Amino acid sequence: MKLILIGIISIILTACTAPLVVTGLPTLLPSPTTQMYRVTAHILNVRECPSITCDIVGTLKQDEVVQIFEYATADDGGRWARIAPDLWVSTRYLK
């Protein structure tokens, strides 16, 4: 009985400490220090997650300034910046 219990605990601990691998989602990169960027596109779509397949939840106009809290790289190699909780923009249109 004791050996079985230790085996179960070992499996649980291994499952909890093993790295989580998720495919199809962007890879989050380390957060930068507070950075401010200006929108260079005439209209920049704001999305609910860092991918062109995510829903557009708003737009920004050219020359608006945004603060970046986090970066992500999508599976297609596109770079994204989180400007607020659940609000992402493509870094391609920020300067």
Précis, in short:
The protein has one domain: SH3 type barrels, CATH 2.30.30. Helices cover 17% and strands 38% of the residues. It contains one helix and eight strands; from the N terminus they run αββββββββ.
Main attributes of the structure:
two-stranded antiparallel ribbon; disordered N terminus; 1 helix; 38% strand; SH3 type barrels; alpha+beta; 95 residues; single chain; four-stranded antiparallel beta sheet
Overall geometry comes to globular
Question: CATH topology, anyone?
Answer: SH3 type barrels
Largest sheet, in brief, is: 4 strands, antiparallel
The name of the CATH architecture is Roll
Category by helix and strand content? alpha+beta
Q: What is the ordering of alpha helices and beta strands?
A: HEEEEEEEE
Strand order of the largest sheet: 1-6-7-8
In whole angstroms, the N-to-C terminal distance is 63 Å
Task: Kindly state the number of beta strands.
Answer: 8
How large, in whole angstroms, is the Cα Rg?
Answer: 19 Å
Uncertain spans, ≥5 residues at pLDDT below 50?
A: 1-25
- Which strand-content bin applies to the residues? 35-45%
Text of the CATH class:
Mainly Beta
Estimate the mean pLDDT confidence: 77
Contiguous helical run count: 1
| Number of separate structural domains | 1
Describe the structure.
By secondary structure, the chain is α+β, with helices and mostly antiparallel strands. The protein has one domain (24-93): SH3 type barrels (Roll), CATH 2.30.30. It has one helix and eight strands; from the N terminus they run αββββββββ. The protein has one helix at residues 2-17; strands at 27-29, 35-38, 43-47, 56-61, 65-68, 70-73, 79-84, 87-90. It has a four-stranded antiparallel beta sheet with strand order 1-6-7-8, with no helix packed on it. It has a two-stranded antiparallel ribbon with strand order 2-5. A hairpin with a 2-residue loop joins strand 7 and strand 8 (87-90). The protein is globular. The model is unreliable at 1-25 (pLDDT under 50).
